[in-house]
Amino acid sequence: MIGSIVLGSPMPVALHRLAAFLLLCGAALAGDGATWAVAKSEHFEVYSQAGGSTARVALMWFEQLRAFFRSQTGFELAGRPPVRVIAFRSAKDYEPYRLRSAADAYYAGTESRDYIVMTLSAPGGFRVAAHEYAHLVLHAVGLQLPPWLGEGLAEVFSTVRLGEGVNQLSGKMPAHAQLLRRRAWMPLAQLLALPPESPVRADPDGAALFYAQSWALTEMLALSPDYGVGFPALIAALTSGLTGAQALTSVYAKSLDAITRDLHAWCGKRLPAPIPLAAAAPGSVAVEVSPVSPFVWRSRLAEVFLAAGDVARAESLYRDLAREAPENADCRAALGLIALRQGDRDGARREWKRAIDQHVADATLCYRYALLADSAGLPRDEIRTALERAVALQPDFDDARYTLALLEKNSGNYEAALALFRGLRAVASARAYSYWTAMADTLNELGRREEAHAAAVTARRYAATPDEHARAAQLAWVAESDVAVQFASGADGRPQLVTTRVPHQTPDFNPFIEPGDDIRRVQGAFRELVCAGTDARIVVDTAEGSLTLAIPDPLRVQMRNAPPELICGMQPAGAATVTVEYAVAQEAATRGIVRGMTFR
């Protein structure tokens, strides 16, 4: 049962995604002087205060850890930059950079970078580092767990031992076991409800009890025969939004008191038996070792503080670094992010503008600057420059590419916009409607009617409101029609020209038909043209009798195939057959107003 959780195939879903292991060798690291150096591989950057040889050894431990984790779980932290490990020579050197009084090591992560800060020489230092590596994995897979379970899993995984022919999950946590034997426990309901920033965890004694109980509870839930089978369901319940108490009682059908009794029994009879693990080799690893200047390692620590949310210390460090290197784009970029977190949008925009001018290599920053610049009403050229740089730095950055495409479309650069739209890797469902309407609009402007119509039809499939449906239908109509001019009566009754749209390739469009006209069409013999001053009327003999229609303005009648001249009065014998388009008149004096005549 235990082996199946750590190793077996298939593994429980929860541990499949959470397992993280750290290579712990029995040999102590030998420092080679207080010289900062960095060892780099494809997956790690280890910055060591104890010199290059120590950095190389530590990096290989992390590489073996990663290889073992990958082989045992099948889960890989792909697509992320190398993990940065900041390793201090001693607890004294680490002390000024400690995040919390009880934190002997810590993990900090952002959307794009992971950090571990640790001490090389402290007793159990690498066990603590293994704990932080587990947090790295939890962050990378995006699994949000309550503090007791996140910390408990990290503690369980920190007992892994690899190397020198020993590969096992030892399960030994003597300090935790002793503390639980001699101290009163906090109520289980309290443990389950503690928030991440609880004062209990800020106090060393409270933190020690919290970690010990979290470790014991998590180990029982994950590894014991009675509880382990329900562990995946527990993870699912917690990630669905249930509280810890709700999830435990519903999954295991036991009260918290009963679970507490089981936990005391588990700790009382627990004799940890190491679980053998299969070996995993990292293969050939190319390692580059080089000295590190004080500026560089201080920059890395400033990054850690910013990632961990310690804005005050991050800003202090970055201010010092910016004074030392005023042309350093990364310092300006970080100060801009700090300003934004402090609510100073103008300050963020100024700092990011300097960073971009100094050729910062951060696509996300360039994109965020463009958004700030747009909200501040800065010129389009400045916004365009930032977006173009973001896309150049990261060609698959769809958000930046899409925003640049919209800017080009709104600037009338339709060919450029079309190329950018089509360069997106994928169209997210949340963006689908706006994407396809923008595509249809762009294609209409370029006169690519069939493609525009297809895009509008696709947009209509993603429309969620009546207005969105109407907009998509309008774009489809634009693709099927042409702009035309027609006459309309203004507010003063005088005729005026207005634009309209007519179906594409409509040869019989009549511009004199006004919006709102009730148009009728009749066919008959053209019998008489009555001329009376500026007014004129025609009489047409139809199958239903004679029809008299008014011509208030002869210049506003569309004539097709008409003779060179029309004669007032009765028309000659054998009068022409005509088709007349007329607007039904509101006045009783005439049946309607002629809009067009087609002679046959």
Taking all residues together, what is the mean pLDDT? 84
Give the DSSP E fraction (strand runs of 2 or more residues). Answer: 15-25%
Count the beta strands.
18
Into how many domains do the coordinates divide? 4
End-to-end distance: 95 Å
Sketch the major β-sheet: 7 strands, mixed
- Share in helix: 40-55%
Radius of gyration: 39 Å
- Give the count of helical stretches: 25
Low-confidence stretches: 1-33
Structural class: alpha+beta
| Overall geometric form | elongated
Features:
single chain, about 600 residues, alpha+beta, Serine Threonine Protein Phosphatase 5, Tetratricopeptide repeat, 4 domains, seven-stranded mixed sheet, six-stranded mixed sheet, 25 helices, 18 strands, about 15% strand, disordered N terminus
Protein described:
Helix 18 packs across helix 19. This protein has 25 helices and 18 strands. Strands 12, 13, 14, 15, 16, 17 and 18 form a seven-stranded mixed sheet that branches. The protein has a six-stranded mixed sheet with strand order 4-5-3-2-1-9, sandwiched between helices. A three-stranded antiparallel sheet has the order 6-7-8. It has 600 residues and is an alpha+beta fold. Mean pLDDT is 84; it is low at 1-33.
